[in-house]
Specification:
The structure is a homodimer of 203-residue chains. The first copy, chain A, has 203 residues and is mainly α. Chain A has helices spanning 19-33, 40-47, 51-57, 61-84, 90-107, 109-117, 123-148, 158-170, 184-197. Chain A folds into 2 domains: 14-58, Arc Repressor Mutant, subunit A, CATH 1.10.10.60; 66-197, Orthogonal Bundle (Tetracycline Repressor, domain 2). Chain A has 9 helices and no strands. The interface between A and B is large, with 47 and 47 residues. The structure holds a DNA duplex (18 and 18 nucleotides).
Chain lengths: 203, 203
DNA sequence: GTCTATATGTTGATAGAC
DNA sequence: GTCTATCAACATATAGAC
């Protein structure tokens, strides 16, 4: 059944574009509205194309999520990989992991933000969550090494310290904006200073 | 049009129950699956009733969210209200706000968790977000008073410190569990110790 | 590689019996 | 206050023209 010519909406035909460009727009919308609340029609509107056009690039909505989460997880894993078997005092390696994580988080803010919001509804999400937990476990081991070496205070529960440190870094996604009033280096330095020495003046 | 008797599913008729009981179940499911991913049918299954039965208690899905968010926001506001015009050094009032927030967060964990995940898609969500921002602003003022009094280190950006402190407390919802291995008092003490003095041993 | 049109399932919500 | 039955809207996804 053909439509009558009068029924056609004058939707202009857009240039072809890459998966990379598509993903940038998609992730922005996923964060803004939430993954589940975002429809393929929303994505079509945001990209200035049609749903069918998106389906030409990817298998579906969950595939888009999968691509986005992989990027974030890969970047974070690389940071830990560098320091996990590194040299130097445990507390210094820990600091480098924190600094590296902050840098990744800032550089890949939308992707990491999306990763941190995943709840495990689907297989794709559960896989990403499992890789996050692996990151957590290895960071925890580093904290315990630092405590054993007397470089981190021993009067606090190591597991709680790990969680708090982790939470401190991850909380950046809730407020840090690249075009905001805080520079990435200042935020990184303030966060490390806060984590190591706290809010109270020393002396 | 009546169904044939054979088509009827043998769904047992359940006892009446209160809005309070309903809300507890609903919030648990909202957190588990995410608000948008949760269907009214999911809620019906979780409560052991039917969709229609739920609609008898509330106007709809968003009404359930509204009730849940109000509870969290009210509890957090009460904590700040106690200390905002309180007596004592700013840093001590700040510590009491942090301790009070942790206690509320632990006592009302599912409700606060839900609040912290809201993105502002609807009017109900935007209202809750605005009340959160108000909380943030007043906490920020308290931090600045403490810095002005020389009770909090002045070499860090006050706004960044506020965000980090806020993020530290809120990150509890990501891992704290009432039936877990950490007692609420220990977590509260460790968090305050971490925030005030950091991870590094003093002396 | 984009488009229009459509198939097919699920959603939030309501009507009305019991 | 619970239930069964139903709806209109919207969801993901696909077919096939250009």
């Amino acid at each position: 059944m053909h439509p009558s010519p009068a029924a056609r909406v004058d939707r202009p035909r857009r240039e072809a574009y890459s998966l990379e460009e598509l993903l940038d727009v998609v992730v922005r919308v996923f964060i803004e509205r939430g993954y589940d609340a975002t429809s393929m029609e929303d994505l079509a509107r945001a990209t200035g194309r049609t749903k069918s056009s998106i389906y030409h690039h990817v298998h579906g909505k969950e595939h888009l999520l999968s691509l986005a989460l992989s990027r974030a997880v890969d970047a974070l894993s690389a940071v830990l990989e560098e320091q996990a078997v590194g040299e130097g005092r445990p507390v210094d390696r820990l600091e480098r992991v924190v600094r590296g994580s902050v840098q990744v988080l800032v550089a890949q803010l939308p992707y990491v933000t999306l990763l941190l919001r995943v709840r495990g509804n689907t297989e794709v999400e559960r896989e990403a969550l499992e890789r996050r937990r692996s990151f957590d476990r290895r960071l925890s081991a580093l904290v315990e090494q630092a405590i054993a070496a007397g470089e981190v205070r021993a009067d606090l529960d190591p597991r709680v310290v790990t969680r708090l440190l982790f939470g401190l870094v991850n909380s950046l996604t809730e407020w840090y904006r690249p075009d905001g009033e805080h520079g990435p280096q200042d935020v990184e330095d303030d966060l490390v200073a806060f984590a190591l020495d706290g809010m109270r003046p020393r002396g």
